[in-house]
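Table 4 source record.
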Amino acid sequence: MAKETSAPALIVARQLGIALSDPSYTVKAQGLYTHLINYIIDRATGMVRGTPGGGTSTAPADYGYVMVCANLMGDTNIALKVNNYLTNHWGILLTGSGGGASFLGSARSSMQRFRRTICSLN
C-alpha cells in the first residue's frame, strides 16, 4: 500500500518518465500520486496523514515530499494547501531557512543531480 513514504518512488518514476521520454513511468507516478491524493492528503485542509485515514503526520519531511510530488505532477493547488497547513499549524516556513526549507532545497538538488545522471546515460 502506498503511503507518504511512497513519495520517493513517485519522484523517481516521474523523473525517469521525463528524462527517458517514457510515458510508462509517468503512468506509474500518476498511480502513486492518485493514492496520495485519495488516502494521504486531506484535500480540503492540506493535512498530510501519517497513515491512510489517520491523523496528521508528525514528520515535516512527509509534508515536503508531498509538496515535491504535487509540483512534479503539476498540482500546485495541493502543494500550496500542504505548504499552508504546515505553516499555519506547525509554524514551519518553507521559504526561509530551517528544516522545511532545507528539506525542499535538498530534494530539489537531489532531483537535479538524478536528472543529470539519467540524461548522461542516453
